[in-house]
């Protein structure tokens, strides 16, 4: 009789106990698969939301001068000349190797404008792109829809004494205030925001761009690589990644991954203990059987092979059933745990790893019971008859 026939017959003979052993593995593996699937969905959800927080790459003309501005306060009143980009060159940004990772590209022209005898920062933007980038902007009135309409920052509106619907004039051009931004805490609070073409005309900077804000979707790609690729296209530009936003994103993701890993390790430990205890009980119950095997000439390795083969079969069965059950559970639970979240689909790589882990876990946990069974003295075993 082949050794594997003995193992299979023993599994069939002890269906209830083996099913209990497999059930422990199924619960353990399905828990791990469910946690990993939910974590993957939450990771994608977090990344998508963080990507909506705005630009994470800023491109400005390269200059040797140091900024004398901190927290919105200028010291020394130094004003130095800087080079500006040609707006016609901005589409070259989307020719980089990782162009698929680029989201909104929002160019801006900046300059000082005289409005009612007061110097105000005039910022020209392409409103469709700017509003897609600054999704948190809230306003009184409406966002500009025409070239002769402007949006005022909260501080600028207060200083100029303007409200939605008021007329405004600067650079010899007439504008109408369509809306006023609610305080954002950013530079736009002090700015008058106009259509980029109109602002270029007022500032006498036709076709020029002062800076470009870029939103990059960095899942699976290093943001530093994107900045280097953009810098290659614009040698005269200083391309800076806003590392604070990226670091916050990575820390949030790592936090979820650490939580999932910690729970998975706990579940694996409990599963291994369950398998070992069950196999130890099985060996103790089979003392007479093992004694007979040794008495008729089975070697120590033969007895170990019988026990370990049983463990391997149950490990594979438990792993396959656990992966299937875990994906079904993730499909049902994900919409309840993650708002508007959808099951990301079966991850075959994770499934394969969990299957191998279940088999290895079953073998390792059964190793000591197998060794103990192999070392059993035939005379002691037969004495139990």
Structure in words:
It contains 11 helices and 14 strands. It is an alpha+beta fold and 385 residues long. It folds into 2 domains: 3-51 and 249-384, no CATH class; 54-63 and 82-241, no CATH class. The strands form 3 sheets. Strands 1, 5, 6, 7, 8, 9, 10, 11, 13 and 14 form a 10-stranded mixed sheet that branches. The longest helix is centred in the C-terminal third of the chain and has 43 residues, at 243-285. The protein is rod-shaped and about 110 Å long. Mean pLDDT is 80; it is low at 75-80. Pfam families: FtsX, MacB_PCD. Belongs to the ABC-4 integral membrane protein family.
Secondary-structure element order, as H and E? HHEEEEEEHEEHEEEHEEHEHHHHH
The percentage of residues in β strands lies in 15-25%
| Largest sheet, strands/sense/barrel | 10 strands, mixed
Number of domains: 2
Shape: rod-shaped
Q: SS-based structural class?
A: alpha+beta
Q: Which assembly state applies to the chains in this document?
A: single chain
How many angstroms does the end-to-end distance come to? Answer: 23 Å
Rg value: 34 Å
Work out the helix count: 11
Helix content: 40-55%
Low-confidence stretches: 75-80
Mean pLDDT: 80
According to DSSP, the number of beta strands is 14
Topology overview:
Layout: H1 3-13, H2 15-51, E1 57-61, E2 69-70, E3 73-74, E4 85-86, E5 102-115, E6 118-125, H3 127-133, E7 139-141, E8 149-152, H4 154-160, E9 167-170, E10 173-181, E11 191-195, H5 196-202, E12 208-209, E13 211-216, H6 223-233, E14 237-241, H7 243-285, H8 287-295, H9 300-337, H10 348-374, H11 378-383
Parallel strand pairs: 6-11, 8-10
Antiparallel strand pairs: 1-13, 1-14, 2-3, 4-12, 5-6, 5-13, 7-10, 8-11, 9-10
């Amino acid at each position: 009789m082949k050794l594997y026939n003995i193992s299979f017959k023993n599994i069939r003979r002890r269906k209830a106990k083996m099913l209990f052993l497999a059930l422990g593995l199924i619960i353990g593996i399905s828990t791990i698969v469910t946690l990993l699937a939910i974590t993957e969905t939450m990771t994608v959800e977090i990344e998508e939301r963080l990507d909506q927080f705005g630009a994470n790459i800023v491109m400005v003309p390269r200059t040797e001068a140091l900024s004398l501005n901190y927290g919105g306060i200028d010291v020394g009143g130094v004003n130095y000349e800087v080079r500006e980009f040609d707006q016609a060159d901005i589409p070259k940004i989307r020719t980089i190797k990782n162009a698929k990772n680029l989201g909104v590209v929002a160019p801006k022209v900046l300059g000082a404008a005289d409005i009612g005898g007061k110097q105000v920062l005039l910022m020209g933007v392409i409103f469709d792109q700017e509003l897609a980038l600054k999704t948190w902007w809230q306003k009184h009135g409406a966002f500009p829809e025409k070239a002769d309409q402007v949006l005022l920052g909260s501080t600028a509106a207060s200083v100029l004494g303007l409200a939605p619907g008021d007329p405004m004039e600067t650079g010899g051009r007439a504008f109408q205030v369509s809306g006023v931004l609610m305080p954002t805490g950013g530079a736009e609070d002090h700015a008058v925001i106009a259509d980029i073409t109109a602002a270029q005309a007022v500032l006498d900077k036709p076709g020029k761009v002062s800076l470009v804000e870029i939103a990059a979707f960095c899942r699976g790609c290093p943001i530093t690589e994107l900045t280097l690729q953009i810098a290659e296209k614009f040698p005269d530009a200083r391309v800076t990644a806003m590392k604070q936003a990226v670091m916050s994103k990575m820390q949030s993701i790592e936090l979820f991954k650490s939580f999932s890993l910690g729970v998975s390790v706990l579940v694996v430990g409990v599963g291994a203990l369950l398998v070992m205890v069950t196999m130890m009980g099985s060996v103790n119950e089979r003392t007479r059987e093992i004694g007979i095997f040794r008495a008729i000439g089975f070697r120590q390795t033969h007895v170990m092979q019988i026990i370990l083969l049983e463990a391997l079969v149950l490990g594979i069965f438990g792993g396959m059933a656990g992966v299937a059950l875990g994906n079904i559970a993730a499909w049902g639970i994900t919409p309840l745990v993650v708002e508007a979240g959808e099951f990301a689909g079966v991850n075959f790589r994770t499934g394969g790893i969990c299957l191998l882990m279940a088999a290895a876990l079953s073998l390792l946990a059964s190793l000591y019971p197998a060794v103990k069974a192999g070392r059993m003295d035939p005379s002691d075993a037969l004495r139990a008859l």
